[in-house]
Amino acid sequence: MAEALEPLRGLLHRVRDSVSRYRGGEISGLRIVRDPKDAEIDIVAVHGLGAEGFSSWITWDPSRRSSRPKSWLEELLAKDVPNARIMTYGYMSDGSSYRYLVRNVLYGRALDLVKELANQRQRDGSSRRPIFFIAHSLGGWIVKRALIISSEAAGAELKDIELSTCGVAFFGTLSPGRPSSPSPLASVIRRTSGFEDETKRSSGRRASGISSSRAMPVQPQPGDIEWLENQLEAFKAITANLPRLSFYETKRSADGFIVDKGDSMAGSDGKQIGLTATHSDLVKFRGRDENYRTFIGTFREMMDNAKTSGVLEAKQKVFDFTAIHRLEYLTSNFDIPYKLSCESSASVSRELLMSELESILSPPGESQPLKVSIANLWGPPGTGKTTLARQYAEKHHDEISFVFWIYAESWETVVASYLEFANSMVTHYSKDAPRSRVENDLGFTGVNEMLKVKDIFQLEAVRVKSVVRAVKDWLMRPDNGRWLLVFDNVEPSLDIFDFVPLTLTGKIIFTSRDQGATPWGRELEMTAMSEEEAVQLMKLSLAEGALDDPQEAAAAADIASHLSYHPQSLSLAASTMRCRGMSVAEYAQILNNRLPLTTLGSTIDQSPVTKTILRISSMLSMSMIPVALFTANSQLKQVPERFVSVFADMKMFHELGHLDDVIQHLLDQNLVQTPSPPTSPASSLSSTSSFDSFVLERDAREHIRSSLTPDEQLDHAWLACHVCVDGIKQNELDSPTLPEIHDFDRIMAPHAKACYDDWSGVLEQWPNEDDIAWQVLGKVCMAQGLVEQAIGCFELALKQGALMQPIERIQASLSLASLLNQVERFEKSTEILNSIDMASIDKALGFRIAMAKASAAAAQGELDHAENQYETLEHEQEETLGPTDITTVGTVQRLASTLEQLGRLEESRALYRRVYISYQNLFGQAHPMTLEALDDLAHVSRLGNAIDEAESLYTQSVDIKRRTLGEDHPSTAHALQKLAVIDDLRCRYDAAHAKYQTALDIMSRTVGRAHPLYTTTMENMALSSRWHGRSLYDDDYVSPGHVDGASLASKPRAVMRETRRRRAFERAEKLYLDVLRIKRDALELYSEEQVLETGTKLREMYENEDFFEGRRRREVERLLEMLREGRRRVSC
After folding, report:
1. Where's it found, cell-wise (predicted)?
2. How confident is the model over 426-434, as a mean pLDDT?
3. How many helices (H) and strands (E) does the chain have?
4. Quick check: pTM over 0.90?
5. Residue 207, pLDDT score
6. CA end-to-end distance (rounded Å), the chain
7. Alpha carbon distance 401, 421 (integer Å)
């Protein structure tokens, strides 16, 4: 019996001690110690565990034996800071268990502190007054948690506590631990809470023969300790704008230091201040002793600095600056100035294709289930896909508010296009508002600087994603509906889904060489021109009146036939005729009477430079070759001896301005053709030649290649690769922005591909006089979506890159690993990353490597390994960059996602909270990065059954989106349906139905009924209706023959319940069937598996709900027939 009562005795003992203290005058909650009429600041003192509340803060006069202890907050601090209202926050700091102390006291009392302090300041109108906290021991953890609660609060009353906090003085407050070095939190709780004394009393009883197998555990449970430390992770997000002092004990308590210097918190300056006192005596002074003078001196300095530095005004200004408001200046003008891409001097309207394109982009009535205006132009290179898109924009100029031209070869080029457009938007709207405000309002903070990087991977992925999301949000505003997006040259290797705003507003054109590059929209194949169109194109490209003569017109038709009516070839031929000053008939005669090239001819042999340029060009692709490639400075440290004279001659020709003579000579000999003068990005690389570029004739290229000896071929292949590398490097040096680099890369990509495809195998046998910089060619291939060639180039670079600089080698390894992940060769990617030599590299590059390794582990599903790597990286970044640096926060976000995937939702939620507060402080509440973090936090809270918190966060998300994006924005509707899910979890089905319906109404007007957002919301609503119907079963049903007065009275209620139940199940059934029909009709958007997924949900409802018992078999058979019919339609 005594053994069973032992824990109860301990509890009663602690409660009796606590009650006696509070009866002696202690007050639980907020207590005002001093409140002068002219108060300008608030000071709040919070004691630690096992303390004596207000009596913790005592002083006495050492010169008087009979001196009674008094509160130094009143006796000393009030006199030294006369303009301060001084308050204490008291709480019963004992508990029935360690878990109670951890979860209810250290964690739970923080909310009470925030609420009471906010209410007090609201009552007396001092809500914007500066606050300074003084916290002892683990009372500091209560203060930290209170500031976290305030920081993430939606309401201004609670929010003002953190915004008004200008400093905290921590006395003996423990710093959170880390997995590599756990903190002594368990020991501090045990030694400061009174549990240690209880343990000793229990030990004494056991020594007297009274055993107690159920006595209080000696240590708090590790799970509780880890949980509490995780919950306070978010405090790191606040520290950037929070001045802090930290005082630590230098005298040992009975059992040694409770919180020694190494475990105590650091001040905001990284320093700690030692006081000559034990842990409990840190906040007990002997009058104005040395300890008090040390404290008050530094405390005054912190207060003075807060006033002079304007920390309060800065924090509150940031919050006011980012206060949620409707961006009215955005809605007044969507006409963004734009410049069409690839403008040419001549183009022909292809009426039939234009008519088909117009019918796709402006479909009549209900002709498309998806109801979005998307056209997919596909066909071989040079067939006029880009030209047709440009012509559509020109023709409908008055109907279009702006054209957003997106280069879609790769992730890098799409991102660069988005950044460039975002910068144009900021420039446009900055006429009506300050640029900094526009950047912040739109979610484009620092976009101008982002454009100046030379490598897109130097940017934080989370910032890039945020800009893309912000642009899409702007495009999907319901009142912004007259735009045109052109995704030009979409490569199949690019996953373009995240970049496409599927909405009923606006129009989208995709161009691609591959028919299946994009799954959406109606396809339009770009075929060859008609003879009439081909002749008209040449007529526009030639001098006025060139085809007036019937013979010339007939010759033009002959040329068009010879060139297979290929638009690009026709334009090139016309340009060549104009540059050579020859008639159409003369050019046609050359085409028809061209003799086989058996010799290069004496006129070519007389010029070594002409011969070299011709031979180098033959090693490249059949695409346009920039003349400036032959004028770029060589990047070779030492030119091989047999090429010294070649490079010297080329340099001399360039300096004397003779390159024009060379190109003109090749033109006159019918060996090259020249496109229209300077309209292409080739001119971005400076050249003294009046020719921008040329194209080598196919016959000449094949003849030269076949006529060279193996050694000559090897020499000129080597020269061709080096010429490309030199030109690419020179352009990168000369180009101020990433899009300009990509413009030139777009021209060089076919040549980089030819270098790898045609010559890499041959050049691997080259004696190592000098390596080719394959990594430069690989970078171009990667940026232009040539994944296979990019991988090959980077592998060659690493294999034979002895002359690469260490940083170049690391960057090549990172690029190769990224590409290998893209093609799901995860093991090889990990091998490449693990082979990187980490010696002598800077921190920033080291962080990139660590991030790549962690991401590769996550991609392979090695989540435990990824967690360890993310965690280690976050700690290193925190020490180097600080806890609130955007790079550090991005790593925390990835770690939170990994923990979520591992099912460790409590830890994940704590980290998402830190991310949310960090972004809120960095960018404001309405920024896309903040909103995404808010939604992540709400989502993981819901998964972890923290329903109250999830509901509050989702409500906040809906409110922000309504006020910034508008009531009818798809993102607002999406947030609203997430809130409806919370209503379902609380069995508030009517409220959920109303929210689902509102969301569907918005989506049907903005993104259409076939949009994935719409069908997902419908399926959620169907499930909600099913749950509702299930909840309405009448448990009080009385069978006939057992009728009494009570059952008669309940009969109308039962009938009503049955009616509602029937309606709920019928609504669920109808919703599922509607989704099935939508998915079946929108074949460009939904796969057969996705159709079957919805069908499976409906079948499961038929088979498991009693409501369908009478017609179950019939409905299942009807459903299966519907699915079979859908499959037949797909196969047809």
Report:
1. Endoplasmic reticulum; Membrane; Mitochondrion
2. 84
3. 46, 17
4. no
5. 44
6. 82
7. 14
